[in-house]
Structure formats: structure tokens, C-alpha cells
Amino acid sequence: xxxxxxxxxxxxxxxxxxxxxxxxxxxxxxxxxxxxxxxxxxxxxxxxxxxxxxxxxxxxxxxxxxxxxxxxxxxxxxxxxxxxxxxxxxxxxxxxxxxxxxxxxxxxxxxxxxxxxxxxxxxxxxxxxxxxxxxxxxxxxxxxxxxxxxxxxxxxxxxxxxxxxxxxxxxxxxxxxxxxxxxxxxxxxxxxxxxxxxxxxxxxxxxxxxxxxxxxxxxxxxxxxxxxxxxxxxxxxxxxxxxxxxxxxxxxxxxxxx
Length: 258
Ligand SMILES: O=C(O)[C@@H](O)C(=O)CO
Ligand SMILES: [Mg+2]
Description:
By secondary structure, the protein is an alpha/beta fold. The chain has 8 helices and 8 strands, in the order βαβαβαβαβαβααβαβ.
């Protein structure tokens, strides 16, 4: 049975950020993820995790100036020094929360731009090596251009090739099924093919990015497939609830922590 992580950036947004940890645990989740923890001190997050016996599945390294439209800096020329201090900051949060996976966002750049590609490769390699010292996996995630126009890493094949070329044991794929379906389809075959390099999975319905309980994808089948493939990681619930978060958790009843 997959272990689901509530995504606290999207779920339980009826509540202030720290209270979402309590709500996720009360709803039966054993783990949580979110995009960015950096507005809140690491100790405050650690306290909520401990109080609720929750595991911290994943979060993202700092993304640059999000409010100004940046979506990561790994592929941006001239930002390598900033990335190194971002990694230190993220590692402080990982140490406090026990997170064993961090996602590095690529940024907005033309995937055909050679300088961006070379920056991205260097950023990914150096960050993975730094994280390996702490026993942490680095995740890279292809994101579809409808949700994030101009995002550099917009192709699963590119991510697969980079992971193979760099051959760093802690560099893994963040397989967001929502993005996969929009970018390429063929989700079940891709899960089979990419499972050896997959370090984290995320889910949402397609096309609405709501609860994984209908529309284009058969999640009942995909959850069984993920189990059949022996996946031992977390499945992040990265969806926008249609209404109140709790009202949309019917799909989750069979998986609740007892
Ligand atoms: O799919 C997504 O959008 C996220 O997993 C992410 O990290 C960037 O927004
Ligand atoms: Mg995602």
C-alpha cells in the first residue's frame, strides 16, 4: 500500500501553515511534504512533526525570487554561488525535520540554450554531491509548460538522460504523475521503465489538478501498479482540493493511518 504524504502547500490551506501538520495527522496521513518551509523556523516545523508523529517526505530547495517570477535558479547563469548558500539553508531544515529528499527546481530557461544546460548540469551534480554527504537524495522533476510556462526541465527523457549520465546514486527522478500525463501520457509504462531511478512520486487528477479520484487517469490501477513495482517511497498528494480538504478525502479512506 503506498504511503501518502499530504502536500501542505496545496492541502489544508483553510488553516495557517503550522496547523496544517496537525490537520494532516488527524486526517490519517503518516507523512507530509510542501514546496517551501523557509518562512517558518525549522524548530517550529520539527515540533509539529514530532507532536503528530509525521514523517517529512520532501521539500524544495529555495527557488530564487518566487514573488518576482523565478522558479528555481539551477539553470540560470551566474547564480551558482547563490545556489550553494541555498543548499546550506535547505540542509538546516533537512537536519531539523529529518527530510531525506530535496527537490531542486531548474528555473525558467530555454531547454535548447547550451549555457543554461551546462549550468543546470553543474548545479545538479554539485548539489547531489553535497547532499550525498548528509545521506540525502536530490530530486529533479519535469514540469509541464501549461502550469509553468518556460520551465527548463519540461521533458522526462531529458531528466532520465541526465540521471544516467551523471550516475550519482542519490540523484533521482521526482515522478509527478500529473505532469507526466500532460507532457507525454503513457503513465503506467513510464512508471515501470523509470521506477529504478524514481525517488518520489506525486499525484493529482488530470486535467484539473484536484483529488486523484476521477477524470483522465485511473488512480486505483496506478496505485496497484506502484505497489506491484515495489516502490518503497512516498506518494505526495500535490493537488488543489475542489472544496474543503477533508470533504475531498473520500479517495484516501482505504489508506488512512489507523
Ligand atoms: O509539481 C510541482 O509543481 C511541484 O512539485 C514543484 O516542486 C514546483 O512547483
Ligand atoms: Mg510536483
